[in-house]
Amino acid sequence: MAEHQGQEQQEQQRRQRRQRRRKTVRRALTAVWPPVVLLAVVIAGWQVYTSAAGVDPATLPSPARVVAQGWANRTDLWDNTVPTLQETVLGFGVSFVAAWLVAILLDFSPAARRGMYPLLVASQTIPIVAVAPLLIIWFGFGLLPKMLVVTLTTFFPLAANLAAGFASTDREAMRLLRSLGAGRLRIFRLVRVPSAMPYFFAGLRVSITYAVVGAVFAEYAGAEKGLGIYMQAQKSAFRTDLVFAAVAVTAGLSIALFGATYLLQRLVMPWERALTEEDRS
Question: Where are the transmembrane segments (predicted)?
Answer without folding.
Answer: 28-49, 89-108, 120-141, 147-168, 199-222, 242-264
